[in-house]
Each structure stands twice: as C-alpha cells, then as structure tokens.
C-alpha cells in the first residue's frame, strides 16, 4: 500500500507552517484572499455519459466550503435534480443553460469578483475558457480561479500538452495534431494504423475511438472534429494492451503536492477508464515504479501550472519493459476525484475550493481525522474496487465493444480488506443479477470463448469465469485479454473455489471454511445457490458458526490517527469493530439507489440527501447505506453514519441487525430499496413511511384495478397475461394498439407499444418471459392523449399536491423522456381539479405516508389513471425547483409522524414563471442505435428552463439539453393528418421569421395550398434522396415530425437517430413545435433574460457589490 507524507522527490514536499498562521482563542485562524467578495461557480448541467452526479457532489462540497468562509456564492447550473441547485445552498442560484451567452448575462447582472470553473466537469471548463478568450471576464473584472486560462489551455490542448511533456523529459505516445481531414490523413501516414483518435476539450472521450482501418479512421476523425469545440483531434499511436494508471494529485500555491490516491485499471489500455473496472490503491506497481509515477505527477502539475486545486493525471506502462508514458491530465476535479475522495475519505473538491481562494494544504485540517493537515498524504489499509454499469439493453443495435469513448451510465464501489473481498462485493452491488464472480455456468461455447475473452465488452468478465472453469491457464487468459496476471490469478482462485462449492455437503461445513469463503467475498446468496438451500438458512448456519461481519473505518491514514467521522465498510477480516453502535437517539436508516442507471439516478439520491438532512434536524440519528461513489449521499458529512455497502438483502440486514433502527426508508432510493422492502419486513425490520402492504396494493395490478373501481376512477381497458395465448386474447378484446409492460420494472424496462398480432407474438417471444410470478400488463394505448404527472405528499389524513405536470410529448413516451411543464399550459382548470381530487382519493385509500406519484392520460375531456407509485419519483427535485417547496424534506417529516397542516405545507402553483423540464439523451454515444422514443426510458438526465414566458423557458431547456433552437436556416416538416391544420400556423410563422421550409408529400401539399413557400422531400420509405440524407449533410436546422402509426413511427426513429448524431433539435408534437416557435421568436427578439430561482420564490437575497 502506498502512502505517508508527501515528498519533493523522496524528501518532504509539504512545507512547514509559516508565520502566516496565527492562533486565536485556541482556534487556528487561516488566511484566505480578502480581495474576493463573490465567486461564481459553474455546474456541469445534465447527467450525461462521461459527466454524471460526481460533479453535483464536488460542486455541493465546494459551495459549502466557500460559504463557511463568508464568500457570496453565485451558482449557474441547468440541472434541477442536483443538491447544489437547492435555493439554500448558494446565495444566488441561476438554473440557466451553461453556455457562454447565458453565463455572460449572469456575470453582467451579479458582477462576481471571480469565476471557479474547475468543479463542473468539461462543460464548466470549456465555458470558463470561452469567457476568458472572448474578453467577457476581463470586461467585467472577473478573475478565473482554480485554474488560469493558460493552465487549462496547456493541459487540454493536445499539442501544447505534448510539448510541455517533452520540455520536462516525460515521454508521451507518438502523436500528431489534426484540425481538418487533410491534416488527419497526413497524421495517419506518420502514426500508422491502428491508432487512437482523441478530440480536444471533450468529456468522457466523446467522439474518440480506436481505428484499425482507413474507413474507421475517417469516420472517427470526422466525428471527433465535429464534437471538439476547437475542431482539433490528436492522432496517437495505439498502446492497446499496455497497463493504465491514474494519479489524483493536489498542489497549492506554496508548491505543496500530495498524491491523494493511485488508481489502477483492471482492463488494459484501449478501454476508457470510466468503462474499466478500477482498483485503488494500485496493486501491481513496484514501489520504485510508484515513486517514479508520483514524481512525474508532481513534475506535470508544476509544468502545467496547476497551483490551486486538484488534478487527475493518467499514465500507461508497457508490461514488457516497464516503460512509462503520460497519456493526459485534467486540470480540474474529475470523475475519478469522486472515486478517490470516497476511497480515501479525503474531500478533494472541498480542499480544491479552499486552495482556489488562497489557502495552502498545510493550513487545512482533514475532516475525517480533525487533527492531520491536508498535506498529510492519505494511506489506506484496504482495497477499493469500482465497477461500471452499462445500459446496452436499452440500445440493442449499438456496438457494445468498449473503447476510448465512454459508454457506461453509472458505477458502484466496494471496499474490502482484500482484492477478492472488494471485487465480489462490487459485483453484487452492481445489481445485474449476479451474486458475485460466479453463478451462470458455461455462458459461452468453447468456440466463441477466445473471442469473448479478447473483446473488451460488459460481458468479458464472465468469459474469464468460463475460461477458468474450462481449465484455461492464467497465461492463456493474459495473452488473450491483456489483463495483468496478478488480477487473473485471484480471479482464477475465486472461479475454482466457486466450482468446488457445488460438491460441499452442508453438514460438513466448519467455522474456518465459512470464514474463508466470506473473507474472499462469497455472498450468502451464492452459497445458498450452490448448496441448494434458502439464503436465510445460510445466514442461520453462518450465525451458528459465529461467522459475522465486522465494520471498519475509512480513516484516510490506515488507523494511524483516530477517525472522527463514522464512515464504515463491512469485512470478515477484523479483530473487533472499530466504532461502537450508539443508542442515545432514535435512528433511521436510509437506503440509497446504488449505481446510476437509466431510470434510476441522481433524482433519487437527491431525495435520500433531503431525508438525511431532515432527520438530523429533527434529532434523529440518520444512517445512510449506499454503494455509489458519485453521489452527494455518500459524502462524509451528509449523514451521522455512512455505510459504504452493496444494497443487497444480506448486506442491508447485517447493518440493520447491528444498528437496530427505529425505521428504514425504502421509498426514496428508487426500485433498488423497494425490491428489498419485503425481505427486510419479513425479517422484522421496521419500514418507515408507507407500509409494505400499501406498496403492494399499488404495485399489484389486480388489487390496483379493484381500488380504482371502488373510487370510481377510470383506467384504459387492460388485462394481465401469464402466457402468450392469454396476451393475444386480451389484445384482441381491448383492441390494438396496446401498451405492453412487464411487472416490477423501473424506467419502463421492456415496455413497448404493439400495433398488431404479429408484433405481439414477437414481443412475447423476445422481450419478456411471462409467468405467474412475472405477469405482463397489457393496456389499450391511448393515442392522441396528453400525459400528466402528479407528485403529492400524504400524511394519512391530508394530501398536498406538489405539482401537476403536463407532458409536451405525446402519450406513450416514458415520463422520464418527455418534456414537461409546470404549471400545465393547455389543460382546463376543470381537468386539473379532477386530477387533484383523484390523486388525493388514491393516496388516502392506499394509505400512503410520504410521497406518491401518479400518471394520468387526458383524452379530450376524459381523465384516465395510468399508474401509481407510492414512493419518491424522479420528478420530485424538478417540482421542488419549480415551486420552491422541498417535497422530499416535508415527506420525511411526515414519515416521522408530523402532520402537513402543522408543517404549513400547501400547494404552490407558480404564477409568475413557467418551468420546463427537458431530457438529455445519450444517442450520440451509441452510433447505430435507433433513437425511437417510447414507453421504455432512454434519457440519462434532465435540465430545466425557467422564465416568465413559456416559449423562452422551452428555448432555455432545449439549449441546456444540447438541442439549441435555431434562429435561421432550413426547417423540415412532416406531420400526421390530425396535425395538418395546426402545422399551417407554425409553418407560416417560421417562414415569416426567415426560415426555408422543406416537407414530405402530404404536409408539402397542405402548406403549398395555403400559399406557404415550401420544397418537397421524400419520406424515408419513399426512396432517395430523402430527409435522412438532408439531416446527415447537416442541411437542416430544425425538425418537426409528429408520427402516427407503425410505419411512420419507424421513419421517426430513423429521423431522430440521425438528428441526434449531428445535434439537430427534433420536435415530435405540435405543442412542442408551437412552443419552439415561441422560443425562436423570443430568441430572435433578443429577450432572453436570467433570473435567480430565489427571485421566483420571492426569497430575498444579498445584493451584489456595486462595480
């Protein structure tokens, strides 16, 4: 394990405290810059692949750190699901697009002394640099802190960085810079194939890749040049197969340097580090190699000029001869910074913020120990394993091969005393149906196994398992995979032990045998599977043999100093628990959501954080259980006690048996904790809030239908099928099209609209395995309906509506993928009142205590109930930001027994502003994947546009989500027959605004008859040239396409897919088209204004200092 005090070379690097330090009343008084009064912090915007909720964690930490020093904090972030955008976090909060245009308006209005762009990922860094280069910062006297513009350029510009490395004698891979296709062809002649293409100033390797032939090379370069904001790519010699390492480094303005953490990729070079399994601290470096890499990291920090913050430096090592090369560095808090912070307990973002305002590392105390300074380099006596989670099942046509462009949507982290323990804990924490490195035997045939081992993909890990079961040697697997033999040796041992479990007789198991399995990470569930007995019987046997987990502290210093913050992990390698259980207060356990995935992400973590803070304010001991290193919920100061553990029945029940809580909150973390609710309840664990019986009443389709009949509420004609024959009969009875959905899923997994019997047969065969335990729910699909979401709180006596949200997208598109608006803009007061009354009636009848979400469909003047979820929904933070009412906090207070009327909670309907939520999609990362929107969710995140005017709110939301509305160019229109009347007004307005119009047959005919100038173009199935050709050549600035029926839905998918690849906004309803026209008018009129959310809520804020 590497650690200890930092050093200059091998000597001390952390300078002794100087006379700048004073002591006053036994408190250390630390200097900071006194010339700065206000600081503007840039967030990272929507959750996208390559930039997720780790930047909410870092931004939140930084805001708290700077506010405690008295700075006035101004925040710009477009993501309403973040903790950092809560109105009580920053002094002034702007939920606006993070673009140079809108950030300039904020700077002009607020006149901050400084801007801190190093905590919001690549988005913030690029915007900060753009504002420096266009003169905005100089014009308004705003200094860039955290990293100067010259430092950002030197690190991010591929050519400058390579020259900087040459100047300090560090080698990097042979490479050439290209700024156009001609230069790219010349670069390839020099570098040769295969080669790696790395676009400049992008995140998560966006646009990059490995090219093995000329066709691949030209495709990747063209994409990279398009996505690079500076039109630049680095063409680099391929080092596929080399080992990859990361160093998390901090440096201050006194040249104190520390390595926070070394991280090793299990996968060799060629796989983006975000997609690789990573291990901390590095396991296969010799001490000499580690010191060499450490010294190189410090030399890079000094050469690039980072002196007020944290950075991430990536290296590669040739496994044949140990040659060390530098790959790149990020002069900002990175994705790996969150992992390193959670792995060590060293709050990188907090310290980076402190360094940015003048502190030095020797002047800041470590929050975990309270006694060691931040220049005391972390040292850890455990192993941390991070595993990525993928979502290729959502994009079946996408290539699942992993490369230099990141594709994972989330990650889990596990801590153990050994690599084996941490590795198996991480695998079961990933929630992919695995109980560890074991289980499904012979997943691959003997013929395909070598190819599966060699190809980096999400399933490769289980090909390794099959290989070791098939008597492959470590050397054979190494030659195929490039994974270091050190890791492979341990994986082989786990696989062979797993195989031997099958022959064990349960009555022969000894205490030592059980302890050995548990120390190597084998779960009770896996042992139960092997012994063919229930999991609870394994637990009983383990307890009888006195084999129980212990809990150790994450303390940053390998137990050299006592940890003041109870941040714990379980292990079977311990002599005694390192922290006693407290019993002086009532305690509540909050179960988090585990790894991010499509359908379950930051929105649920937001709710968990609010629950913890509310419970602490009420005097409860709040205990957080989660396995996601990216989140605010796993920060050391959010809860009274943090367990970094997988969210499985075994791990959570062990914590409950240790803590004996007064209640467990399962409703805030999404489907993951809800899936544990029954097992915990049956084990005698008290469930806080809505009873398990009530949850089942809402989830069970039969019981739910009975309740609606009892209340006199309508639902679409429906049925429940447990076989394909039943499904066919139900569909014929209720009529096509039908909406198919499996039971017990999140994010609309495997939901689909089926148009005919042949389609239905395919769905039942391919998409689901229907059974009595897993019935398929079939609803009549309501075409041309408006969907409505409602969030509410119920205390058992009263119900308060959080908000009624109207979807702008048509019915049948998952609520997470639909643009929606608060308050509703087309629904009558009568309809909205009917929805409110129905919501309250259902909440009281079900017996909800806390939050509930209802989805309705409105067709004409008829309201239908689609679905009820008696838990937190992903819209809770959006509602909170739109209305100023912290729903999750009030729901927690209600769950603790308080009454809504006593809390003074009432529905707030915004009168002076409109809030539009828009989704952010990952389609551009998955070339070849169809971008059809439907009942299965595909968005990774969301943004909010807020304005007094609906059109401008819509324009802001579109801009923030990466679909900026144009103010000139060509618009393509193709609409269904029902929309042909309304499209005339939209088309005429666009034409009057100066746009050229192109349309398909029927739409073209209608517009021509109304005297609107328009050019005709073929539909996709009518032959070439067609609209997709137009899109691919980027000859279109905006698409208006309202699909109807199966064929045009297919066309729509192709249109959308290609539109996303080239970044063209695509609107699929007339209401969205009308909204966009309003937005375009506002943009052309130059009426875009910015206002703080505090001003919308009527909250007074401190005025900015006068310029």
Structure description:
There is one protein chain. This protein is of the alpha/beta class. The chain is 36% helix and 19% strand. The strands form eight sheets. Strands 16-15-12-13-14-17-18 form a seven-stranded antiparallel β-sheet, with helices on both faces. Strands 33-32-29-30-31-34-35 form a seven-stranded antiparallel β-sheet. The protein has a six-stranded mixed β-sheet with strand order 19-20-23-22-21-24, with helices on both faces. Strand 21 (587-591), helix 20 and strand 22 form a beta-alpha-beta unit. Mean pLDDT is 89; it is low at 1-29.
List key phrases describing it:
single chain; 1107 residues; alpha/beta; seven-stranded antiparallel beta sheet; 40 strands; 36% helix; 19% strand; disordered N terminus
Largest sheet, spatial ordering of strands: 16-15-12-13-14-17-18
**What is the average per-residue confidence, as pLDDT, rounded to a whole number?**
89
Structural class: alpha/beta
Give the N-terminus to C-terminus distance in angstroms: 52 Å
**Strand segment tally:** 40
Instruction: Please bin the fraction of helical residues.
Output: 25-40%
Write a concise synopsis of the structure shown:
By secondary structure, the chain is of the alpha/beta class. The chain is built from 37 helices and 40 strands. A 7-stranded antiparallel sheet has the order 16-15-12-13-14-17-18, with helices on both faces.
Secondary-structure blueprint:
Layout: E1 22-24, E2 27-29, E3 38-42, H1 54-67, E4 72-76, E5 92-94, H2 100-110, E6 114-116, H3 121-133, H4 136-139, E7 143-144, H5 149-156, H6 158-167, E8 175-178, H7 181-191, E9 195-199, E10 209-211, H8 214-227, E11 233-237, E12 243-251, E13 257-265, E14 278-280, H9 287-304, E15 309-317, E16 324-330, H10 335-344, H11 348-356, E17 383-389, E18 410-416, H12 419-429, H13 449-454, H14 460-469, H15 474-481, H16 485-501, H17 511-519, H18 524-531, H19 535-544, E19 550-553, E20 567-571, E21 587-591, H20 602-617, E22 621-626, E23 641-644, H21 649-659, E24 663-665, H22 671-682, H23 692-699, H24 701-711, E25 718-721, H25 724-734, E26 738-742, E27 752-754, H26 757-766, E28 776-780, E29 786-794, E30 799-810, E31 820-822, H27 829-846, E32 850-859, E33 862-869, H28 876-883, H29 887-895, H30 900-903, E34 914-920, E35 941-947, H31 950-960, E36 970-975, H32 980-992, E37 996-999, H33 1001-1009, E38 1015-1016, H34 1027-1032, E39 1038-1042, H35 1045-1062, E40 1066-1067, H36 1070-1084, H37 1093-1097
Parallel strand pairs: 3-4, 3-6, 4-5, 6-7, 20-23, 21-22, 21-24, 22-23, 36-37, 36-39, 37-38, 39-40
Antiparallel strand pairs: 1-2, 8-11, 9-10, 9-11, 12-13, 12-15, 13-14, 14-17, 15-16, 17-18, 19-20, 25-28, 26-27, 26-28, 29-30, 29-32, 30-31, 31-34, 32-33, 34-35
